[in-house]
Amino acid sequence: MRRFLRQRCRVGPLGPGDVAEVLDRMHDPNVARRSPTRRRGPIDYPDRGVGSLRSLPVADTTPNPAADAAPRVPSRVGDQLPAELVLTPLVADGLGQGRPIMEWLTTFHLASVVLDPYTNESSWVLRAATRVLEQFRDSDARINLIVTAGADDARAFLGPLAERFLVFCDADRSFVKAAGLDELPAFVFTRVDGVIGAATQGWNPTEWEHVADAIAKVTWWTSIDVPGPSDPGPFRGSPALG
Questions:
Q1: What average pLDDT does the structure give for the chain?
Q2: Which DSSP category does 226 fall into?
Q3: Are 224 and 207 a contacting pair, CB within 8 Å?
Q4: Half-sphere exposure for 133 (CA within 13 Å, toward CB)
Q5: Rounded CA gap, 163 and 54, in Å?
Q6: How far apart are CA 7 and CA 13, in angstroms?
Q7: CA–CA dist 213, 167 (Å, integer)
C-alpha cells in the first residue's frame, strides 16, 4: 500500500520532557512517564498489510468531570470541503509545501484530529485521540493531526508525536472554518471525494466512537472502543476560533 514517507516514521525511546502540554510556557521536564496502551488488531484481509504499533505516552491531565459534554456535530457534516482549502504539512525544518485538500485525498481518506495547542481541552484529549487514530494507521484513511498553530508551537505541543504522525499546521484556522467547527478538539473524517463523512467536537467518547465506526465502515477496517481504560471523562471543547 502506498503511503507518504512521513507516515512510516518511528521515534526512539522517550526522554525527559517528551510530553504534550498546553503551551503556557510551563513545561515540566520531570513529568512521570506512563505505560503505552494497546489497540485491537485490524481485520486481516489478504490484500492488506498489518504494520507494527507502538503507542506513545503523553501528558495525563484531568479535565473537569462536571463539564457539559453533550454531543456537538459540526454543521458541515455531509458537505464537501472547498476545493481551494490548502493543508500545509509540518516537516523537519518548519512547514512543507501546502497543497489543496483534494491533492491529499487522491488515494486515501483523511482521519483528522483537530487540536488547539493553547488550550487545556486539547491537552487533555491528546493521549486518547492518538490512541483512536493508531487503530487506523494501516487502513485506507490517512491519519493526521491538524494543529491550529505555526510550526514551532505545533512541534513544542506535540513533542515526539510530531514525528509519528502526519501533522498539518492550521494557524489561520482555515480548516476549522471550512469544516464548520465550533469547539476543539474535534475528530473529522473526510472521504476521498472531499465530503465530511462524520465528525464530532469536544470530547464525548460515544460520539468519537461513532466517527471511528464511520471510518471503519468506509475503509473495511476494525473500529475501536471509546473510551479506553485511561481516557478522560466527557468535557466540552474550547472555542474553535480561539
A1: 80
A2: S
A3: no
A4: 30
A5: 13
A6: 18
A7: 23
Q: Which of 29, 53, 19 is nearest to 138 (CA)?
A: 53
Give the C-alpha separation, 53 to 196, whole Å.
27
Interatomic CA distance for residues 208 and 198, integer angstroms: 10
3-class secondary structure, 86 = strand
Cβ neighbours of 133 (radius 10 Å): 24
DSSP code for 42: P
The candidate with the shortest Cα–Cα distance to 60, out of 21, 115, 117, is: 21
Residue 103 Cα to chain centre, angstroms? 19
Question: What gap in Å lies between CA 205 and CA 184, rounded to an integer?
Answer: 14
Domain boundaries, the chain: 72-226
pLDDT of 49-84, one tens digit each? 333 333 333 334 455 544 455 556 777 889 999 999
33 pLDDT more than 90: no
The architecture CATH gives domain 72-226: 3-Layer(aba) Sandwich (3.40)
Number of neighbouring beta carbons within 10 Å of residue 53? 14
For position 15, what pLDDT does the model report? 39
Report the 10 Å Cβ neighbour count for 9: 13
